[in-house]
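RETRY 2/3 - previous attempt timed out on the joint model. Re-submitting the same 1038-residue input unchanged.
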Amino acid sequence: MKRFSLLQLAEKFGGEVAGDRDRQIEGVATLEAAGPGDLAFFTNSRYLEKARNSEAGAILVREGTELPGKTLLVVEDPSTTLAELLELFHPVELPEAGVSDDARVSDDVDIGAGVTIGPFAVIEAGCRIGDGARVGAGAFVGNGSQVGAGSVLMPGVVVYPGTVIGKACLIHSGVILGGDGFGFATRSGLHRKIPQVGRVVVEDQVEIGANSTVDRGALGDTRIGAGSKIDNLVMIAHGVTIGPSCLLAGQAGIAGSTRLGKGVTFAGQAGAAGHLTIGDGSVVAAKSAVFTDIPDGSFVAGVPAADHREWKKSVVVQKRLPEMRAELKRLARKIRQLEQDRNQED
Amino acid sequence: MKRFSLLQLAEKFGGEVAGDRDRQIEGVATLEAAGPGDLAFFTNSRYLEKARNSEAGAILVREGTELPGKTLLVVEDPSTTLAELLELFHPVELPEAGVSDDARVSDDVDIGAGVTIGPFAVIEAGCRIGDGARVGAGAFVGNGSQVGAGSVLMPGVVVYPGTVIGKACLIHSGVILGGDGFGFATRSGLHRKIPQVGRVVVEDQVEIGANSTVDRGALGDTRIGAGSKIDNLVMIAHGVTIGPSCLLAGQAGIAGSTRLGKGVTFAGQAGAAGHLTIGDGSVVAAKSAVFTDIPDGSFVAGVPAADHREWKKSVVVQKRLPEMRAELKRLARKIRQLEQDRNQED
Amino acid sequence: MKRFSLLQLAEKFGGEVAGDRDRQIEGVATLEAAGPGDLAFFTNSRYLEKARNSEAGAILVREGTELPGKTLLVVEDPSTTLAELLELFHPVELPEAGVSDDARVSDDVDIGAGVTIGPFAVIEAGCRIGDGARVGAGAFVGNGSQVGAGSVLMPGVVVYPGTVIGKACLIHSGVILGGDGFGFATRSGLHRKIPQVGRVVVEDQVEIGANSTVDRGALGDTRIGAGSKIDNLVMIAHGVTIGPSCLLAGQAGIAGSTRLGKGVTFAGQAGAAGHLTIGDGSVVAAKSAVFTDIPDGSFVAGVPAADHREWKKSVVVQKRLPEMRAELKRLARKIRQLEQDRNQED
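RETRY 2/3 succeeded.
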C-alpha cells in the first residue's frame, strides 16, 4: 500500500497544507466514503454539507475555501491535482504484453514492441499496430488500418478498413470507427447508396467513450483533432472535422461535413446540423441544436441555438406567456372602453 | 402445444369471462393477427377499431371495457395478466448449461452451478459468476467482476473490471458497463484525464437495454437500484445513482453525479444535467431536460423542464405568439390614436 | 488504375462536358483535395468559394451551375452520378467467400452459395444464410434467424433469435436486432417484465447504421420497410412499423407501436412518441418530437412538433419575447395614463 504524509503530497504537487501536515494518506475517496486515511475532493459548493460532515483525513480544495475544523490540501487547480493523485494511488495495471493465441492477426500486420492483443481480436491485412498499443478482446481492426503507439482499443471496438488512429488514444468498448456515412442519392423516392470512400483519422491523445460512432468520410476524411475527448453514445457523421482539444459530452451529435474549431464544447444531447462552422472555443449548451454557423467564442443555447443570455431571458419570459396573453386581453378591453368613452364624448 | 379454456385461464390468473367460457386458447397475439385460438390484448382506446374487427378467440381487457359481441377475459390489471399469459405460453427456453470450449475463462474464476458461458466469451481473473447465470457469446467480463445468480449477459456485452452485477439481471447485447467517466482537468485549454477509479454496481433484477452505457464512478460508485429498468441507448454517467424501480426510456441520458430517487421515470430522449437530485416518483416527459433539483412526485416537461401543466399552457400560447405580436402592434396603434385624440382635446 | 476521359464519363452516365472533353479522370475527390486527375463534386452553394479555388480536373455539377474557367461535367442529378462514379472508381472488394475455421456455425444451418462467415462469428441452430451473404467477424446470429441473399452483417452485429433479414441489406457494426422491447407491467411500484415474443423483420435493401437498435415486437413484429435507410445510434422500439424508403438520421428514436408510412424522413435527434401514425412522405425536422398523428406530406418541427412554417414564425417571435413583455408593460402604463386623464375630465 502506498502511503504519503500530506506534506509529502503538498511538496509533490505544489500545494499548501492547512492543518496537520503529518497526516498519513493512503488513498482518495468521495467526501461520503472517505475515512481518516483518505483524501477527499471538494470544489462544488453543492457538496458543502457533505464536506463539513466528511470523515476524510484531508480535503483537497482550491485556494480561498473555508472548511473550519478540517485539514485541507490547498492547491491552485484541484482537478489537475486530483488527476495526479489518482495516477499516484491507482497506477494503471497493464496486462502482460503479447498476442493471444486466440487472436487472429493477419501475417503481414506490422506489430510494434510491447503490443498486447487480446483473445478473439481480429487484425486484418496491412494493419500497423504501434509500440505498446493494446487491442482488447474481440476487437476488430479492418484492412490497412493503423493504431498509433500507446493507443488502447478496449474490448469489442470495431475499426473499419483504412482507419488511422494516432498515438496515446483511448477508444472505449463498443466504439465503431469508420462505418459508412449516411449518404444516398434519392430519385423517384428511392434511395441509392453513395459509396463512402473516405477515411476516419483520429489524431493523438483522443479519448472516445463507449458506443460512440465516427463515420468515414464520403470522399475525404472525417477527422478528430488531437487531444479531443468524446463521451459515450456520441455520433460524428461523415466528413466532420473536430478541431483539437474539443469536448463532446454524452449523446451529442454532429451532422455531416460540419467543422468544429479548436477547444469547442458540446454539452450532453446537443447537436449541430450539417455543413456548419463552429468557431474556436464555442460552447453549445446541453440539449441545444446549432442550425447556423457560429463565430469564435460563442456560447449558445436553445433550438435553434442562440446567444446563451438571450436564450435565458427568453426562457424566463416564456413561463410568463399565459400571463402575458391574459394581460393582452385585459389591455384590449380597456382600450375598447377608452375608445367607447371617447366616441360618446364626440 | 399448450391449450387452456378461457375459464381455466380466468381461474389461473383471477379474472372473469364475458362470453363463451369453454373457448380454447392456444396462444397470445395482436388484435390484428389473432385468430380464433388466440387471446388478444386491448387496453388503449386508440385501438378500439382494431378490437372491434379482431378475429381473436377472446380479448383480454380491464373491467368496464365494452366490446359488444366479443368474448372477453376481464381482469383487474391486464398488463400483469398479459405478462403471466406470455410466461405460460412462451416459457423461456434455456440453452443447455455449460462452459463453451471456445470461451476463455481465467483459471481462478468462481463459477456457480448451472452456469452457461457461450463461445468466444472472455472471463478474466478473479471474477465470480453466480449459479444459473448466463454469459452470451463474445461477451467480456473484466478482472474481478461479479455476475449474480440467474443474471444474463446477452452476446457482446462488455463488463469492465471491478463491476458488480446483482441477481436476476438481464443485460442486453451491446451494453457497456464500467467504461470511464468523462472526467478531465482542463488547464491552458488542454484536457488531462482524471483516472476513473470507482465502480459500477447494478443491483438485483435490473434490466438494461441494447447498447446502453453505464460509466464507472470517478471515485465512488455508479449505482443502478434494484428493479430499475433501462431501455436502449441510454447513457448513465459517472457517479450517478439510480434509485430502485426507476424506468429510463430509450436514449435518455443522466449526467454525472445526479441522483434519482425511487420509482423515477425518464421518458424517451429526456435528460438530466449533473449533480442534481430528482425526487422519488418524479416523471420527466419525453425530450425534456432537467437542469435543477426537483422534489418528490414532480411531473416536469420542457427544456429547461418545468411543471408539466405550466409547460402545456406555455406550449399552447407559444403557437399564438405571432398572433400576440400582431395584437400588441394593433393595441399600440390604438393607444397612439387615443393619445392623439386626447392631446387635440387639450 | 482506372482512367476515363470526361467525354467517356459523360456518355456513360448521361451528361454534358463544359470545357475540355479529353481531360483524363482517375478518381473522385473533395473540392479541396482534388488534383488535375480528379473529378470533384459541387451542389451546395456554401462551397462556392471552394469550388472556385479547386484544382480539380473537372467538377460534377447540375445544369445551370456557373463556374467560370472550370471544366464541368453537367448532369441532371449529380448525387446519382456521384454514386455511379464511386462505384466505378471504387468497386467493392469482396473478401474470398468461405466459412472461417474460427466461426462456430451450428450443424443444421442452411448456408447458401458464396457465403462468407468471419472468424469468431456464431450462427446458432436453424438459421438460414442466403447466397452471397456475409457475416462479419464476431457477429452473432441467434436461433432460427434468416439473413437474405447478398446481405451483409458487419463485424460485431448481434441478431437475436427469430429475426428475419431480407436481401441486399447492409447492417453496420454494433447494430442489435431483436433485443427485448421495453415492456413492463407496473403494480405497487414494481415493474414486472412482459415477455417480448414478437420478431424483427427487416425487408430488402435496408441499411442500418452503426450501433442502432431495433427491438423485437411484444406480440407482433417490428418491421423495417424495403429500401429504408437508418443512420447510427437510432432507436426503433417494439412493434414499430417503418414503411418502405424511409430515412431516419442519426440518434432519431421511434417509440413503441408507432407506424411510419412510405418515404418518411426523421432528421437527426428527432423522435416520435408511441402509438402514432406518421403519414407518407412526412418530414420531421432535426431535434423535433412528434406527439400526435400527422397526415401524409407533413413537414413538422419543434417540441411538440407543429407545422414547420408555424414553428419558424414562432421561433422568430420567441426571440422578441423580452421585448414584447417590455412593450406590454409600456402599453399598460399608457392606458393607465389615458384612463386617469379621462377620469379627471369627468
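Chain A has two domains: 4-89, 98-308. Closing ticket.
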